[in-house]
Design a protein that fits this description.
Elements: H1 12-25, H2 29-41, E1 53-56, E2 59-63, H3 69-81, H4 96-106, E3 111-115, E4 124-126, E5 129-133, E6 136-139, H5 141-147, H6 151-159
Antiparallel strand pairs: 1-2, 2-3, 3-4, 5-6
Helix pairs in contact: 1-2, 2-6
Length: about 160
């Protein structure tokens, strides 16, 4: 049985701070969790929406370019295969060209999360990848949280008491 959790790759206290900051910017933890639940309840993955928009009762998530199902499928596979977090392909592997095309296609995309009511906050923006250097590309933890990780894991991180 595979118990690999991609969120374990990120420093937990830093991840919690980022998640709390993002939650506050759209109205709080409950609004953030409702966004996650709405994303998970979609029949087709929200990322492959042709209009590059996902609406939920408390706001919207928009991105700058449509993502095709093939790219989405490859990305899902990559995030679980690369247990060190680096999804940059090594020379000579079978899918080198398709992975490079995926990285080139998704790198410039920006995701904008905004609450429906401006009084709830300003919202937040993020990119799908963190480029560390020319041979290291990591999936942005916010991207992982919003579109892939189970909600119960995110609840644990959000509600974890800070260590002293």
């Amino acid at each position: 049985m595979n118990n690999f959790n991609p969120l374990d790759l990120y420093p937990q206290e830093e991840l919690q701070k980022d998640l709390l900051r993002c939650a506050k910017s759209i109205g709080g933890k409950n609004y953030f969790l409702q966004l996650l639940e709405a994303l998970r309840n979609e029949q087709t993955p929200a990322l492959v929406a042709k209009n590059s928009t996902f609406r939920f009762p408390l706001g919207t998530v928009k991105w700058t370019k449509p993502i095709f199902r093939e790219k989405f499928t490859l990305l899902k596979q990559l995030r679980l295969e690369h247990k060190d977090g680096n999804i940059f392909p090594k020379k000579g592997i079978k899918k080198h060209k398709s992975i490079m095309n995926l990285l080139r296609a998704l790198k410039p995309i920006a995701f904008i999360v905004q609450p429906k009511n401006k009084k709830d906050g300003e919202g937040f923006t993020f990119h799908p990848f963190d480029i560390v250097d020319e041979k290291t590309t990591l999936i942005n933890p916010l991207f992982e949280v919003l579109f892939f990780s189970p909600v119960y894991q995110i609840k644990k991180i959000l509600n974890k008491k800070p260590s002293r």
